[in-house]
Amino acid sequence: MSLPILSMILFAPIVGVAVITCLPQTAGRMIKMVAGGAMWVCFFLASLMFVNYDWRVGGVQFIEQLAWLPDAGASYSLGVDGISAPLTLLMSVVGLSGIYSSWRIDKRIKEYFILFLLLVAGVAGAFVARDLLLFLLFYEVVVIPMYILIVVWGSTKRVTKEYAGMKLVVYLLIGSGFMLAGVFMLYVLANPAGQRTFDMTVLSQIGQSGVIPAQQQIISFFLMMLGFATLASMWPFHYWSPDGHAGAPTAVSMVHAGLLKKLGAYGLLRVGLLMVPVGFKFWAPMMAAFGMMSVIYAAFICLTQSDMKYMVGFSSVSHMGYIVIGIATADVIGLNGAVANMFAHGIMTALFFSMIGHVYNTAHTRDIKDLGGLAHQMPKAAVGFMIAGMASLGLPGLLSFVAEFTIFTGTFATYPVVAVLAISGIILTALYVLRALADVLFGPRLTKWDALPDLKAPEMVPLVLLAAFLIGFGMFPSLLMNVINSGIEPLTPLLVKIKTAATLCGGL
Amino acid sequence: MWAEFSLTHAWLIPLLPALAFVLISFFLLSSPWLASRLAIAAMGSSFILALGAAAAVLTQGITVEAPFVMKTVWFSMPGLSVDMGVLVDPIAATLLFVVTLITLLVLIYSTGYMAGDPGYCRFFAFISLFAASMLGLVIATNFLQMFVFWELVGLCSYLLIGFYFFKVSAREAGKKAFMTTRIGDFGLLLGILLLQITFRTLDFAELAVKVPAYVAENGAASLTFIAILIFIGPVAKSGQFPLHVWLPDAMEGPTPVSALIHAATMVVAGVYLIARSFAIFSVLPGALTVIAWLGVFTALFAAFIALTQREIKRILAFSTISQLGFMMLALGVGSLTSSMFHLMTHAFFKALLFLGAGSVLHALHDQADIFQMGGLRKSMPATCLMMGTAVLAIAGIPPFAGFFSKDEILVAAAHVSTPIYLLASLAAFMTAFYMARLFILTFLGKPNPHNHPHESGLAMLVPMGVLAVLSVVGGIIPFAMGFGEWVRFGPAHHAGIDWAVAGASTVISLLGFALAWYIYGGGHTRSNDLTIKTGALYTWSFNKCYVDEIYQWFNRTFVGGLARLSFWIDIHALGAVVDNAWRGTGAAGSEMRRLQTGQMQQYAAVMLSATVVLVILLAALTGSLVKGGQI
Fold first, then answer.
1. A427 in reach of chain B (CB within 8 A)
2. Got the DSSP string for A174-204?
3. Which of A113, A368, A378, B144 has the smallest count of CB within 10 Å of its CB?
4. Closest CA to B330 of B292, B285, B303
5. Integer Cα distance of B240 and B2 in angstroms
6. Of A367, A377, A500, A497, which is closest to residue A449 (Cα–Cα)?
7. Which pLDDT tens digit goes with each residue over A155-210?
8. For helices A379-392 and A457-475, what crossing angle results, to 10°?
9. Which percentage of chain B shows pLDDT scores above 70?
């Protein structure tokens, strides 16, 4: 395809930013329409890309390449494979939903949408980049708008929004500091001076060829893990995440849980597993154990939370645990499940936050103890809550089930104990989800909420869009799984090597 | 032609009600007449197709060994391939017939029972989805497909039990049903995963070949463990002890839902799962023993509780648990035929009992305590007659339906284990007693002057009539037609009545009736005396042996405790470390700031001393390097 579709996906939000910059602060409605329009274009292009991705062929497709910094070996190189194509689609879906979940924003509208679109563009760039430096650039870019969005438009609950925003930034920046060190270690060790490159494909080949000694790989992966696993909110590096969720405005929570955490998991997979496999093998059992801790520990905490956003915040820590475990299996089935769950959880958690956002915008509380019987006043939002909740507890027919079942199958072969404990998470998840649904939606009609409006037309967009993806892919998982598998299956030789290597660097 | 079409289009049987659900949810939520008619039309078509499929099974020689299968890949990757498909054999055909028939009758009944309810359309949508999920489960070709629909059945039961979501009790009951079955699903999911890991397939047909070979080679120990894990799923779904607690509360839903849950959908799913995968269980005697004993214990335990309950639907709920225990015990003693037979006859008379109870509650404006009823035979003769039929059927009086199926279970049990047979007979005695108690207190005796009952309308009575007829002939006709020749596992089961067992069980049931008549026949005095005399036993039975309380205590203490502990750690341990480290950085920063005094002399002094130190260090360093010959 000669059309530079990935660049168009990446620049759609940025063009939106440019247009909004030219609009006056008072043109609130116009600004929202432009932002929405930009994301619709982005979504449309991403869908086109996803549909046209030929999974029978597999490999990196829609490649674009331009010289950038030839001296450093970096180029403007884009492309998607079976792993990043679904995630790019996810980015556009969540981004678009986020715009419509922000429809009630009335403070500094212009700045809000500029920052939000930049945030989405940053995520988009990280997913479509085929150049490591480009990836890192976008990866780091997202933190800045995040911080401003939380501190200016956020809300103060258990902790102040300033604290939440600052904690998030400090955590992520320290994490990325380590991660950058790890990545540059790889960059320097992989090639002699003068021939160095940031090309991801080349770096993966070198990483898998065994040029880099085991010891260095172990150190390099550890440093990367500190960064990526923090972003993926793996226990015990999750501490920034629930406060960040609770402080952030609705759409930022959606992007934060739906996309940013996936970026961390994507980094573990794309940079960690593929470029320093020996280091990965060394740390994988620990990651599996920490992932399992995330699942159980965060699920238990969810039981104690009465602020819905904290609950879903901890719940996303819990669900990210499944993804971390899936990656740590280094198994075709486990990795398939992990990527599928990145997609599934991204959609599901965005839907959850979107519905909570509606309740909070109208009722000005999101405390489970204050709410109740909202199905009377907002039946449509109740349906959204139900779908999100059911996806969260892994109900078949919704995509999350397929993803989780696949992860469990992959994990059972590699880490049976972790698998059993992690699966017991489905009971805890059901406990807290059903409790929240029952206490918020059902029960007697409370007259104090009678004035609350149900979802109106623009706010229906996230519900319809996200639910359609959850149900559609849930009923026909092949549509997604075939694409993902086309990215995972070619890794089989590497994964077999990782599994069977007698010593740490044997065979690699 | 019709049979052939039905068989090859058997996938339409669950699809039609599913479509009805979608159409009602999206377009017909405010047109009750159309919504109910659409649901009934879809279900009726499914019923006709199910009949056709059953006819095809009989005429085309489809047996348990050679089922009709068609399937397609749902999703696949290297090492994991999952199908969705249709499997029709005599077992599935029986269930298809029962489920579509009962659901159809319940839908027709509901047009009368639910009339005027604000959630009328939602009700018909949910029931359609409920039936669709159950039918999808029945025709599953593999464990994962079964699990998918199994969970959807669970979702629908949650939605329907909590149908009156504005009632706190209904909301809690729905949650409890979902939660309890979730515990079972945990075991089931583990079992399924272990099967997938061990055999690389979840297909029933493939497992039926691979499992016996595996047992012959590796022994039964590990597979018995897997089988028991799988069995936890049915324990929860089919209300076996100790995961039965959700079923009595499930009556919070509208009464037609109770009829569906207790008769055709949901609870029999567990029994069906064991039957479907009987090729696995049959080679694992250890697992079968567990199933048999848990079944008979549940049958006894639930019957014991049913003896003293006062709410009409609650008695029926415990009766369901008890009867499910019979079905499980039948499977446990290796008689798939009698289990499926009892499943079918039980579906007829239990649906009738619940619809009859609904008719009574409708007439008495939801007065549910049977001690406040009495004398309804005059005001509700049709309901009384049909309920009476159902009571005779469930007590196993010949020639009613329950007699044949229960007799087969007892015969099978007697062949395997005398203690199980005796305990099952005791449960049968209690069944006859509490059902007679219910009937006597409700319909006989003096009318309660506070009640102003009226007979229900035709929409409710006609479906009950159909079920009443089936409760009479639903046992003898299949029996005469050779049910056991078709629905079986292993060699054909030769139908015949063991007169010793049959006679004994009939006498036992009649004794139960007699005892009930003696106690409750003449007013409440004798029963009140008995309540006082039996003291502790009565209290235990009436309080359902405190199983609920034990769960609540466990949940509060352990789950809640761990939850609070985790949160405490997060805030006070992990959080404290991070926040203190942060404050430490801040403190270090302010210390550092003191160095920036802005005094030139100070800076100059520091620079000078630093230079001196550096020069000396460098000199020493280069010296050592030169000595080493490196430069």
1. yes
2. HHHHHHHHHHHHHHHHHS-TTS---BHHHHH
3. A368
4. B292
5. 40
6. A377
7. 877 778 888 888 888 888 888 888 888 888 888 888 887 788 888 888 888 888 87
8. 30
9. 93
For chains A and B, CB pairs below 8 A equal 131
- Cβ within 8 Å, pair A430-B78: no
Please report, as a single letter, which amino acid is at residue A14. I
pLDDT band at B463 (very low <50, low <70, confident <90, very high): confident
B574 and A CB contact within 8 Å: yes
ipTM here: 0.90
pLDDT at A93 over 90: yes
Which residue in B116, B328, B374, B322 sits closest to B235, CA to CA? Answer: B328
Token match 């309901």: residue? Answer: B383
Q: Give the DSSP letter of residue B83.
A: E
Nearest Cα to Cα of residue A296 among A431, A186, A147, A144: A431
Instruction: Name the minimum distance, in Å, from the CA of B189 to any CA of chain A.
Output: 8
Task: Please check whether residue A477 touches B, CB under 8 A.
Answer: yes
Q: For residue B80, what is the nearest residue in chain A, using CA coordinates? A: A333
CA distances from residue B474 to A193, A229, B414, B479, B492 in whole angstroms, order as listed: 86, 62, 24, 9, 21
The residues in B 72-131 lying below 8 A from A, measured between CB atoms, are 73-80
Q: What is the pLDDT of residues A206-219, one digit of tens each?
A: 888 878 888 888 88
Query: Before A236, cis peptide (omega within 30)?
Result: yes
Contact A396 B570 (CB under 8 A): no
* Among candidate residues B83, B200, B207, B204, the one with its CA nearest the CA of residue B148: B83
Note whether B574 and A239 are within 8 A (CB): yes
Collect all residues of chain A within an 8 Å Cβ-Cβ radius of residue B168.
Answer: 443-444
Q: Which residue of B has its CA nearest to A477?
A: B75
Cross-chain Cβ contact A412/B165 below 8 Å: no
Measure B542 CA to nearest chain A CA, in Å.
28
* Whether B151 and A423 lie within 8 Å, measured CB to CB: no
Tell whether B426 is within 8 A of chain A (Cβ). Answer: no
Residue B533 has a CB neighbour count (10 Å cut-off) of 9
Give the residue from B162, B121, B153, B203 showing the smallest Cα distance to B14: B153
CB contact under 8 A, A481 and B566: no
Task: Of B209, B206, B185, B234, give the one whose Cα is nearest residue B83.
Answer: B206
Give the Cα separation of A330 and A269 in Å (integer): 9
Kind plus residue range of the DSSP H or E element containing B477: helix B476-481
At what angle are helices A240-247 and A308-328 packed, to 10 degrees? 140
CA distances to B312, B448, B454 from B360, rounded to whole Å, are 9, 13, 9
User: In this structure, how many other beta carbons lie within 10 angstroms of the beta carbon of residue A148?
Assistant: 18
Q: Which candidate from A300, A430, A481 shows the least CB-CB separation from B77?
A: A481
Rounded to 5 degrees, what angle do the CA atoms A372, A374, A375 make? 125
pTM here?
0.88
A433 touches chain B (CB under 8 A): no
The rounded distance, in Å, linking the Cα atoms of B500 and B242 is 33
| Ramachandran angles phi, psi of B448, nearest 5° | -80, 120
CB B340 within 8 A of CB B91: yes
The minimal CB distance from B77 to the residues A297, A333, A412 is found for A333
Asked whether the beta carbons of A80 and A1 are under 8 A apart, the reply is no
The position carrying tokens 């005599």 is: B90
- Going B388 to B390 to B395 to B397, the CA torsion angle's sign is positive
Mean pLDDT of all residues belonging to chain A: 87
Token pair belonging to A92: 């556009």
* Among the listed residues A200, A177, A203, the one whose alpha carbon sits nearest the alpha carbon of residue A189: A203
Cα–Cα distance measured from residue B149 to residue A396, given in angstroms and rounded to the nearest whole number: 8
